[in-house]
Amino acid sequence: MEARVALVTGGSSGIGFAVAQQLHRRGWQVAITSRDLGRAQNASQQISHDVLPLAYSCPRRSQEDASNKAAELVSQVSKELGASPSALINAAGMSKDSLLLRLKDADLEELLFTNLVGPVHEQSSGKRNDAETSGKHHQYRGVLWGLQGMWGKWLTQHPIGEIREADEVAQLVAFLASDEAAYITGQCIRIDGGLVI
To answer: At a CB cut-off of 8 Å and minimum separation 6, what does 139 contact?
Structure first.
């Protein structure tokens, strides 16, 4: 049986951590990233001794730097876990507590590189590495919580009046990464308890 390798960016906490746990429970080899290696190591130890912790942050100097760094990340995961990632979960994200009009240029740049540019290059590098190493096509699925809206006001507007657990999102992500979801592509699936109908 071919090894199933998942790379979870932002895997040291929140939804990313729950996704890493869920995939590991389902037999995946998992690599998680955090900007802080200590946090990644702590999270990996909480899941299992065989989860690979990595420090990773999308560089903000240029698109080329971001692309090269993402390629290095995917290559490192492939080398250390013995197979290319067949699932890439972009759970890393950030927000700034400010109106868009009041954001400083540096803050806007950090938001864009963390929440958009990094995941795009990670996805691209994963596909390129997969084609170079195995010649097989794998679908890459991403979750990026940071692009889905303002968390602070969400609870008061929520129809069921409660916020559910990160593991409920992780279960959907694990399903989408499975063979059972092979025919599902290009979809944005809301897990919002009826917030948007």
So the answer is: 182, 185
